[in-house]
């Protein structure tokens, strides 16, 4: 006769596989790498600095009128 089979092990393996499949799907749907997030953040900061450099101050605007 064969050894008894531990059904809990198979149940847990199936649950882990389902979790991994769901996590992989979420990574595709929502995930971005840390490098991509950092690059976007740096680009946003850079564009804000560039915009700030082109702003006119209130003092020059008042003296023109």
Overview of the structural elements:
- The chain has helices spanning 7-30, 34-53, 58-64.
- It is built from three helices and no strands.
- The radius of gyration is 28 Å and the shape is rod-shaped.
- It is 78% helix and 0% strand.
- It has 65 residues and is mostly helical.
Amino-to-carboxy terminus distance: 100 Å
Order of helices and strands: HHH
Spans of at least 5 consecutive residues with low confidence: none
**Helical fraction:** over 70%
Tell me, briefly, the overall form. rod-shaped
Mean pLDDT: 88
Summing up helix and strand content along with how strands pair, one would put the structural category as: mainly alpha
Beta-strand share of residues: under 5%
Count of helical stretches: 3
Find the count of extended strands (DSSP E, 2+ residues). Answer: 0
Main beta sheet: none
Rg: 28 Å
Index terms:
single chain; 65 residues; mainly alpha
Give a concise summary:
The protein has 65 residues and is mainly alpha-helical. It has helices at residues 7-30, 34-53, 58-64. Helix content is 78%, strand content 0%.
Secondary-structure topology with pairs:
Layout: H1 7-30, H2 34-53, H3 58-64
